[in-house]
């Protein structure tokens, strides 16, 4: 049975997308030149940035050192900081009466538009910086691991973590989905429906009732 989506919810999401695009366009129309200056500043700052400035050694609530920022996060973080420092962040939100919970969402949409339209050479600057930041992290935290490892469960009934579980499960599923009696076409094997009927005969009593229901 297929579940149809709520029409009102679909229309509401569609209206939110239209509203978001229109606000972003209006922000660019009014503050485009100032935002462009912020982008140029962030780009120049990246050319001479020190990787150590982006390494966060303070542990989070889980007792782990945060992951180093990737290229997109470096660009977004510096862009947001500069917008706030110049007072543009507050000015944009007040001018267009953007509510608190939507402010960061709109600013991220602004920054992403610049990121998506950026030249490859400029993006490579942030990618190189991100690689240097990761190397700096490894120097400062020798036991740092880029990939999170799954926490070992204390439940004795839970099987140990297997990193290849998904691939094995996928293979088992594909193998089990094919009936074992369906071999090569040149073999004279029983028809699947016939085999199914014979199995039902073993489970159902009387078998004639099954035939009546089927008819």
What report would you give on this structure?
This protein has eight helices and no strands. It is extended, with a radius of gyration of 29 Å. It has a domain at 7-140. The chain has helices spanning 7-47, 71-85, 88-95, 100-116, 120-140, 165-176, 192-203, 207-214. The protein is an all-alpha fold. Helix 1 crosses helix 2, helix 1 crosses helix 4 (100-116) and helix 2 packs across helix 4 (100-116).
Q: How would the global form be characterised? A: extended
Rg from alpha-carbon coordinates:
29 Å
Mean of pLDDT: 75
Query: How many strands, which pairing sense, and closed or not: the largest β-sheet?
Result: none
SS content category: mainly alpha
Give the termini distance in whole angstroms.
23 Å
Instruction: Give a count of the beta strands, DSSP E runs of length 2 or more.
Output: 0
Q: Count the helices. How many?
A: 8
Query: Which ranges are low-confidence, i.e. pLDDT below 50, for 5 or more consecutive residues?
Result: 14-20, 180-187, 192-215
Helix content: 55-70%
Strand fraction band?
under 5%
Order of helices and strands: HHHHHHHH
GO cellular component, one term: nucleus
Keywords: DNA-binding, Nucleus
Protein name: 11228_t:CDS:1
GO molecular function: DNA binding
